[in-house]
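Journal club prep, shared notes

We agreed each person brings one worked example of a sequence with its structure written out as tokens. Mine is Bifunctional cytochrome P450/NADPH--P450 reductase. I'm keeping it raw so we can talk through how to read the token line rather than staring at a rendered picture. Sequence first:
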Amino acid sequence: MAATEILTCPVAVDKEANLALCPALYPGQALDTPKNPQKIEEAEIIDHSKLLKIPSPKHGHYFGLLGHAPDLDPDLPVKSFWKLMDQYGEIFQLDLGMTYPRVFVGSRELVNEMANDERFSKFTHRLHKEMRPVFGDGLFSAESTDKAWWKAHRLLVPIFGSLGLSKMFDDMQDLSAQLVMKWDRFGPDHEIECIDDMARLAFDTVGLCAFGYRFNEFYTADHHPFMTQLKEAIVESGRRANRPEILNQFYYKEEQHRQENIAKMKELCKKIIQDRIDNPKSEANDLLNLMIHGVDRETGEKLTRENIEYQIPTFLGAGYETTSATLSFIYYLLCTYPETMAKAQQEVDEVVGDTVLTYEMLPKLKYLDACIKEALRIQHPSSLLTRFAVKDTVLGGKYFVRKGQMVSGVWRHFHRDPVVWGADSDEFKPERMLDRNFQALPPNSWKPFGDGQRACIGRGFAEQEILINVAMVLQRFDVKKADPNYILELKGQMALKCIDFKIRAKRRSGKSSLSGIPGGGSQPKKAATKTRQNVTPQIDSKTPKKSITVLFGGNMGTAESLMQSLSRIAPDFGLAVDDVRTLDSATDSLPTDRPCIIITPSYDGRPPDNAKKFVKWLEQLSSNGTKLSGVKYAVFALGNSDWVNTFYKIPKLIDDTLESLGAERLVETGYGNVKQDLVGPWETWEEELCLALSGVSADKAHKAQAGVEVSIERHNLKTLPSVLGGDQMGIGTIAAIHQLADTSVGPAKYHVDVRLPPGCHYRAGDYLVVQGRNSTESVHRTMARFSLSPADTMTVQSSKKDFLPSQPMAIEHFLRQRVELAAPITKRQLLTLSLHAEDSSPEKAHLLNLTQDPAYEDLLTNRHSVLDVLSTIPTLALPFGVFIDLLPPLAPRVYSISSSPLSPSSGTLQSGLVASITFDLFQSPALSGHGTFNGVASSYLSSRKIGDEISCLVRPTTLPFQLPKDISKPIVMVAAGSGIAPMRGVLQERAELMKQGGEFGEAVLFFGCRDEEKDYLYKEELERWERGGVVRVVPCFSRPGGKKGRYVTDALWEERDRMWEVVEKGGRIFTCGSAARLGRSAGEVWRRIWKEKSGQGGEREGEEWLEGIKGDGRYVCDVY
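Then the structure, token by token:
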């Protein structure tokens, strides 16, 4: 559908046409006849005597005064639509408070008619209206007639093309790696709440890839407040859309809470935008950069600040809700059909093996891609595909639909239409989606991403994110249902999601803890590929540039992203891309005064929406025998190999027709397959085009680019390492250090005070990120193995790993500060070592044997590192360069700050605040038998002296781990061991605030230790605070000498009456300790308390209650 064709809803306000209001948004308004009838298609001639009445159920409530809305399932409205579709067959209608009843269809045949742009179109409706307070004029809820929608759409679509997505691959993989490592840490018996982890993954992925913001969902027990606020706002908006409008005024408390959530979300959106403005990241390939700095090519305008603020929740909401649901459905279906999972896993093993997944591998995962497509068919995350009739028309030859009437396709039914999919349409069979089976499907049989200009803009983003995650999970784990008898249950207003679906993930035999993890597992050998040589001919800047026109087609942004690439390099060749238009805009007006470059795909053999008129015009010219004299052109064809029978059909048609009409082809047509390598063919063709248009020879161009600019910086050993996210480390100074507990009942525990750099601020509850050091023992072992001395320096040439020094660095410094020396060895690393052993030698046989079980399992169990294995084979001649290339970078460690800046002992901001940390020392004989295992950061910190400098950084918490603003609210703290750290910071702050007076609520600390005499951390300080009324301490000792142990959860349950009073008073609950132990067990106790005191529900309701108080910041977990 052309852009001009979707701007006008036949029943929407239009100043020029004076059209009527949309009945979906404004029920009860009369329809006016448009003053400009040319904007509306001619009415069909309809014989009503041959038509059937669309069936409709009887009203079940209030004598039908409120229509059918009260009859719908309030928690899962679509469930009612499914039942009615089962009852009535392919069509029914409901009275939902609109001018006309809403029609629902469930067959592929009727949905196919809905896809006819001359009869139906897509407009915003009541759901969009109710979502507008949340999403404003963002892409989801803005009207198609809104100038802001078009500006944002034109600006943002290109970044979701193949080029843009390829640049997002690393960040997507990084976040899936976090999920994989989390599951691995919890072990095979841990029950994973699938929808919860998938929501964390999808939310984090959109945040990082779109806005460069890390919500760090895998580092906290609770969801980020923004996710909770957004989810609640979406759910309530959906409920408002499903209620009769007259009833919404009675839900004023729910609306007040929704507006509070919206206000909080806006605060963070403004902060994200302002942070990017204050700290520009010109290299970032994300939406935020484009929204702030991009200029719409048609209006010459940028997006407004308010519009950008609305786009952030729009993309987060649309991106995480449906993607997380889809991922959960995929894992449910794979677990339900284990034979299918085995096939998918086999493909992953063949394509990826034990290496790290790369972008180039994704197109090879064809069966896994088919699994994803089939899952979207079987259980779509959304409910309905909705369009409006643009004129009176007839569906299926027998059902009358009025102009302006809403018609919704029920995804569950038309995606399972037995006429298309067969009698087994309810079965999960990915083979349906492979190659020619997929190609043979009738039109509009499978349409999970909608259609037209308002189709899902993030389709490619979601597909890539899902494919990466499922591939990485199947590579590492065997996945099974926690409850083998579980049958899918659903909930949801806007997006459907599963309830109580839990899985277990067991690491597969032979897989190490770092298998498939970027930087930790084996890197695949990349095939030699041709890369652009940055051809930049020397063109006199004063010479006028040659103008060229670029015409593009496409809905998904790939063609536009290629156009932008051409625009960037054209000036280097004396060319100017100063005329950029859609193909439709060139209908009847192909330029003859300049070269015309055409970039377009085809969609299942059809032109894209913005190229339909152009193609039709060319075909008319061809049939009439008209010639196009003076036109010079070049075509780059985009295709998708999923559509085998129509691959490149439209660009080939355009190319052949232009040639037959007498136009001159400037260069041979280029071809790029978006399912494989698009970038390589495009760059080759782009270079050929620019050389041909500029008249510069390839030899001359390549000579001109000889020689590179080199920037040399003298090496400085005090150059500070960076941490993830690009934040620069600062220098902190050790102000105090002492041991809190020895090793008699567990790991030794330490307290360290760090004076931060002047001007560095923190709050109670924040984190201190510390760059540790490898131990002297492991560094010296490494240097001895390779016969190196402390005076030696090293330089690494031509490496993409930024932690390897490209300028001289002392080797001892490098080994101590840049790489992980103690990480367990992987099978791929063993194979690499074996390549450097002589064939048929004992060393080679030994190394190959170590890759097999049970020898390899023994290596993992006892944490043998690469260095440990090398120590057993002193005769292996391994180059030092190979050794360091096997090692991952040394990662910083994160500690909760255990102090408050309000304490007098914390100093001042000007002189440098003091931040305390409390930690366990990890130091014990190495399980491998090679020396001592030393925790990288804990051993380093415990060995510091007062006055020593360390590299550190304050990382603000994303949790509300602070005292309530209302000091009268009670607080409960639950901690174990060094988990006392953030509690001490909160209590230190409370003690200082209480000196200023005021009515403070009760504070209780449940603190778990092993023995009162041996590891009761901060005992004197806690007792002093208790005497001063700052806190009531309930110490719990699990291993007291000669006595029965008591855990914090035991004490919590014993005091459940008082704890429930805290809940009823709106108090805040803090928990800090092990996620697998304290985090889980404390949550279970609180659910038991709720169940006993409220007398309501079961396990699911208890979980919903706990999630509710987490969402509003009253239950805060900082677990590890």
